[in-house]
Design goal:
With 129 residues, this protein is mainly alpha-helical. The chain has 6 helices and no strands. Helix 2 (25-46) packs antiparallel against helix 3. The protein is flat.
């Protein structure tokens, strides 16, 4: 897989803007109230709709003194070079993103056969007696 350097550039911009609020002590933290949802929505869009990334980025930008963490860039590295790792699975990116096979939100439900349904009904009837 070839690295998407355009995506890396966007991640770096998101991280730099988020970290720049630390330069102005009190006013900078107030700007995080505006920047947190913008950054979180941007990262969710960049990383296949991952709500885990959304929540982490929102918390990182919203909580004081955590803006220095380059979460967007870390996510890019994980997705690009470690897309099949457990960390990527936790973040729901890489091979585990919504656009990939391992990342769908579909839950397999095993259908019960008629014999099992009948057995269940019979047990329910016996318990009522």
């Amino acid at each position: 897989v070839s690295p998407d350097f355009g995506k890396l550039l966007l991640c770096l911009v998101i991280d730099v803007i988020g970290s720049s609020s630390e330069l102005v002590p009190i006013i900078g933290e107030l700007t995080d109230f505006v920047w947190a949802p913008i950054a979180a929505l941007s990262l969710r869009s960049l990383f296949q709709g991952s709500n885990v990334i959304f929540a982490l980025e929102f918390a990182e930008e919203f909580l004081p003194f955590t803006d220095i963490l380059p979460l967007a860039t870390v996510c890019w590295v994980v997705e690009t070079y470690y897309g099949d790792s457990q960390f990527a699975k936790t973040l729901r990116i890489g091979n585990y993103g919504k656009n990939n096979i391992g990342g769908s939100d579909v839950i397999d439900v095993v259908s019960t056969g008629d014999d099992q349904k009948e057995d269940f009904v019979n047990r329910q009837d016996k318990s009522k007696q």
